[in-house]
Specification:
It contains 14 helices and 2 strands. By secondary structure, it is mostly helical. Strands 1-2 form a two-stranded antiparallel ribbon. Helix 4 crosses helix 5 (132-142) and helix 4 (89-119) packs across helix 7 (181-201).
């Protein structure tokens, strides 16, 4: 259940989502797998793994066992007053309001500091910036708490935090953390890490292509724009992205033209570590940060130096290199852990206990399942 803002996710095809998931899965599999915290056996991390003898079935596993693989999921939008039982509305509404207000300030402080940290580095940001554990450690720093997981903390992060606090004395969030915020912060860290990854993965090709078109069109003013686009699509961008580049069959493509285009594209190519495929960018987005940073700096210089020059092709719109912090209230995911903390309930283990908690707090009769002959029940 999501309560809060109105953020919209970019539409992606099924193939794109699968490629990004596969890349992240390979990146995670390359890490050292510790012993399970539940059964203390090697080969898996927790009881969520089917290999664990104390395995708790997930929601997807329970649905598959009960409904098979052909079921369809639907999403219903219901007001707070209709879905929450009357006896739980005052307390839950108070907890959600406090969580949203606190998360808005915490997220703003976190993003401002990490943007400062990444932009002021000479090198690309470490891969940890795009992982949940890094952001959870940053949230502990922002709240003035002891960092419990230091494995994802780069060596230069704490000095950068000290420098940031000297510039901005109010960077430390002195407000007390409301009850039940641990799970909300953990889930929000996943969203922020994904947002930072998408800022590179989903924007890299568009940003680089628009900049390449700008510099080539200003260099070859007598060539038609559609022909410049063809050069960018077939050669310039693949060349910068270390992919398969070929010259379009155009009469103006001679040796001098090829040498000039290569010379203009080589500075960006030198900043790209590996082929700029969706799979590679999802696995290692930090490898493409410096290229985008160079494009951003060059565009800002063009806006400053040629702001009113109508004789030139206008430069691309300046863009934020990393996600821009917002003061809007973020969404808060009401997971079972969050609801248990908000409502002072015991923590649930397993899908059936989670389902029981939802039935205790929410009134599902408003969803209108019974009109279709569907009766919601909990398996004992």
């Amino acid at each position: 259940m999501i309560v809060g803002g109105n953020n919209k996710k970019r539409k992606q095809s099924f193939e794109v989502k699968q490629q990004k998931k596969a890349a992240k899965r390979r990146a995670n599999d390359s890490d050292v797998v510790p012993n399970c915290k539940s059964c203390h056996q090697p080969g898996h991390k927790s009881s969520r793994s089917p290999l664990c003898r104390n395995h708790n079935p997930s929601k997807a596993e329970v649905l598959y066992d009960n409904l098979g693989g052909g079921y369809t999921c639907f999403t219903r939008k219901v007001s707070f007053e209709d879905i929450v039982k009357p006896e739980h509305r005052p307390l839950l509404k108070q907890r959600v309001t406090e969580a949203c207000a606190f998360m808005e300030q915490l997220k703003l402080h976190m993003c401002l500091f990490v943007n400062y940290y990444c932009i002021n580095r000479r090198d690309a940001p470490p891969s940890a910036v795009f992982k949940q554990n890094f952001w959870y450690s940053v949230s502990q720093m922002i709240m003035g708490k002891r960092i419990t997981t230091s494995a994802q903390i780069p060596n230069d992060l704490l000095p950068a935090w000290d420098a940031f606090r000297r510039i901005h004395p109010n960077a430390l969030l002195r407000r007390g953390m409301p009850t039940g915020m641990v799970s909300c912060i953990s889930e929000e860290c996943v969203n922020i890490a994904t947002c930072f990854t998408n800022a590179i993965v989903e924007e890299f090709e568009k940003r680089v292509k628009s900049f390449l078109y700008f510099i080539l069109q200003n260099r070859f003013v007598l060539i038609q724009p559609k022909d410049i686009h063809a050069v960018v699509d077939k050669f310039a961008y693949p060349y910068v992205g270390r992919g398969f580049a070929e010259w379009p069959s155009k009469p103006f493509v001679n040796d001098d033209f090829k040498a000039t285009v290569k010379r203009m594209c080589t500075p960006l190519q030198s900043l790209v570590v590996s082929p700029a495929t969706l799979e590679n960018m999802s696995a290692n987005p930090q490898d493409y940060f410096l290229c985008l940073k160079q494009v951003s700096v060059a565009i800002e210089e063009q806006h400053s130096n040629h702001a009113m020059d109508v004789r030139r092709v206008p430069p691309p719109r300046a863009f934020a290199l990393l996600p821009t912090p917002t003061i809007r209230w973020p969404t808060v995911s009401l997971s079972c852990d969050a609801i248990s903390s908000f409502m002072r309930k015991p923590r649930c283990r397993g899908y059936n206990q989670q389902l029981q908690l939802y039935y205790d707090i929410f009134d599902f009769s408003k969803l209108g399942f019974e009109r279709y002959g569907i009766k919601c029940r909990i398996q004992k």
